[in-house]
Amino acid sequence: MTSLKVEKKIYLSDAGEVAQNWPKLRKYLLLNGLTLDESPPPRQFAAGFGNLNYRLSIDGRAAVLRRPPLGPIPLGANDMERESRIITGLSQVLPLVPKCLHFCDDRRVLGAPFFIMEFRAGIIFSGNLPRSLIKWRGPNRESAGVYLGREMINLLAALHNIEPVSVGLQNLGRSENFLERTAMGWKRRAELAWEGEMPTALRDLLGWLSSQSVPYSDTVLMHNDFKLDNLIFDRTTLNPNAIIDWDMGTRGDPLYDLAVLLSYWTEASDPSSVIRMNQMPTTKYGFPTREQAAELYAAITGRDISSIRYRRVLAIVRTACVFRQLYRRFTSGSTDDPRFGSFGNVAYGILEFGVDVARGRCF
């Protein structure tokens, strides 16, 4: 099999890169028994809208430095201490989780907490797949979409099967009343994100959530932002090489974790304003539908998904709020990334679609 060709840039150019104080980091790491090599020089990865990620060479081996973005940080987001703790625990039993090599909470070094972890080679997919994957076939002659859709659900189910106590994460987060607290938290964030300009669709969704009985939930280890571009795949076999971006990980409801994934899982029949979210390539390439993905998760885990709609609506509110927060970063001048300029309209579209989900018009 041939290696997949990458059709988008992996690293930012010098003009777009957020520079770090590499000499200061080098001095700090030397005091902690690590050497930041001068060659190859650090490079910032181009993917992602949130945390800043850099490829480094530490003691002759590739590594990744991860730190929060510049500007104000939403409450509970971009938590480097939490993420380093999670990957330290999970990497003991889940080889797809990179090991943490070092965590630093001294803001004098780079201006924010950061950690350094193993580098995992491979390819990351976001809104589109490479053209070379159109005719790709998996081990059972399935299309790339069928294969990748199944892998996402298999990996999420495997994560949910890990006992938190087995990896020292039994005290991670607050699992009691998880769904109630999550609903209240995103209501507060949405009100802040729209600052007195609350859209009718958002008001309808918050009203719908408050009118529903909160379903019973299990407690598992959650990724809490599980989607295709948080997975790294082998360029030739498409075997998964890593699960990344754990800064929102916690203990909580497994079906909400599934619902967060489904909030990014667009279909060809969805409104164009939702498809423009462009987070996963699930509108084509043979990917299963959201309902099929949820049914596969239920078949693998044995969990009852009959109450998934509450989680779906809650996750949709969250996703809309995230896009609104990103848009606010653009309008406030915290970022000049032109992609963020359209996120205000995307957020509105997600909310309108959420009303259809709440009313049972679509899955």
What order do the helices and strands come in, and which of them pair?
Layout: H1 22-31, E1 43-44, E2 52-58, E3 61-67, H2 80-90, E4 100-104, H3 107-110, E5 114-118, H4 144-160, H5 178-194, H6 200-211, E6 220-222, E7 231-233, E8 240-243, E9 250-252, H7 254-263, H8 272-275, H9 290-301, H10 308-331, H11 343-358
Antiparallel strand pairs: 1-2, 2-3, 3-5, 4-5, 6-9, 7-8
Helix pairs in contact: 4-9, 5-10, 6-10, 6-11, 7-10, 10-11
Features:
alpha+beta, Aminoglycoside 3'-phosphotransferase, Chain: A, domain 2, five-stranded antiparallel beta sheet, 11 helices, globular
Folded structure, characterized:
This protein is an alpha+beta fold and 363 residues long. It has two domains: 22-118, Phosphorylase Kinase, domain 1 (2-Layer Sandwich); 131-358, Alpha-Beta Complex (Aminoglycoside 3'-phosphotransferase, Chain: A, domain 2). It contains eleven helices and nine strands. A five-stranded antiparallel β-sheet has the order 1-2-3-5-4. A two-stranded antiparallel sheet has the order 6-9. Strands 7-8 form a two-stranded antiparallel sheet. Strand 7 (231-233) and strand 8 form a beta hairpin. The longest helix has 24 residues, at 308-331. The model has no long low-confidence stretch (mean pLDDT 92).
